[in-house]
Amino acid sequence: MKSTSVRLGLVLCCVSLTCGVARSEEPRAHLRWPVIRANFLAEPPNVAAPTRGGTQLWGDEVCIEQWRIQRNVVTGHYRLLDPDDVRRGWGALSHCQRQLDELRRLGRIEPPRGTVIVVLHGLLGSRQQMSPLANYLQDHGPWSVINVTYPSTRASVADHAMALRSILAHLDYATEIHFVAHSLGNLVVRHYMADHAADHQGRIDPRIKRFVMLGPPNHGSRLADSLGGNVIFDNTLGIAAQQLAHRWGELAPHLATPPREFGIIAGGKGNDSGFNPLLAGDDDGTVRVDETRLAGASDFTLVDSLHSFLMSSPAVQEQTVRYLKTGCFHADGVRQPIVSDEELSH
User: Given 50, 83, 111, which residue is the final one in a domain?
Assistant: First the structure.
């Protein structure tokens, strides 16, 4: 009898952990990664603690100034981080949101107004990796910059796009929104645009204006495809990497061609060999130049840079600011638009 009671107790503990009986909110139904629905209190006590700001376990869902509410991809709970990445609260989303709203009411946080630039990193990247570009943007324009963190290896592009939708929904005082994205981040934006259009009779948020793509794998990645399909690749880099590779056919139909002005900055050597001898044609070591092109782009430019260093390139930084202000990468105003699929040789 005692043994049976012990076993029953263990079963009940497991059920409590997986069903989240004390949580005030269930994890969102769209999430495709396994979630441990932990038994968190709605308003747990908090000890302010420094964090690393989120890398592959946390994703931003609300960003106001440098404060952010993030969601844990394993447990499904939320936390509120201050501008120094110190945890100021955690638990249910509603609890963190109330704390953030109170800070706004007290005047400790001013929501971004006017023009806002949303910056997104790529696969295996981080907000810190995008900081050189984000800081340059902040210093060179009449706008606010939001540098977004998302767990690129722990969810699908659709999941990241839904988190981006949440971020934009909370930019209630922004009148214009620009995007600047690196690599996979471009596909997150394109997926978000497709999702929003599907839910709003073909329309996207009217506040969205210009979009600068840095090294975008707009037609998938030949390099990822050559590495994909094995257990190590799939388990280490996750579903988003698989979607760049052997599952590209599943992802491509859900990516919109941006219905607003967009320009593309590709890395390469400007020759037929590029940086990577394993890739045919010019490339930035990771993405082929031909893979970055997308019909409808209002301008295109090539810089001598490796894929992971595009955001640190002075040329890229200068041209990104110029495009956001004028719709052109070069000071002479000459554009290199991509106007038809026949121009693409991917």
Answer: 111
With b meaning 16 or more CB within 10 Å and e meaning fewer, what string describes 204-230?
Answer: bbeebbbbbbbbbbbbbbbbbeebbee
Instruction: Specify the number of domains making up the chain.
Output: 2
Q: Which amino acid is it at 78?
A: Y
Q: Are residues 217 and 301 in the same domain?
A: yes
Strand, helix or coil for residue 17: helix
* 124 lies in the same domain as 69: no
CA distances for 245 relative to 9, 37, 275, angstroms: 45, 30, 20
Strand partners, 71: 59, 78
Range of the domain at 39: 20-111
pLDDT tier at 232, thresholds 50, 70, 90: confident
In 252-297, which ranges are continuous DSSP H helix?
289-292
The whole-angstrom separation of Cα 254 and Cα 161 is: 11
The 10s digit of each residue's pLDDT in 20-35 is 333 333 334 344 444 4
Instruction: Give CA–CA dist 41/77, Å, rounded.
Output: 10
Statement to judge: residues 81 and 181 lie in one domain: no
CA–CA distance, 88 with 65 (Å, rounded to integer) = 15
Same domain for 49 and 165?
A: no
Say whether both 299 and 314 belong to one domain: yes
- Residue 221's SS3 state is coil
pTM above 0.90, yes or no: no
Residue 314, domain member (yes or no)? yes
C-beta of residue 297 within 8 angstroms of C-beta of residue 262 = yes
Distance in angstroms (rounded) separating the CA atoms of residues 178 and 207: 8
**Are 89 and 229 in a shared domain?**
no
Locate 104 and state its tokens: 């706004």
pLDDT at res. 229: 78
Tokens for 87, please give them: 């945890």
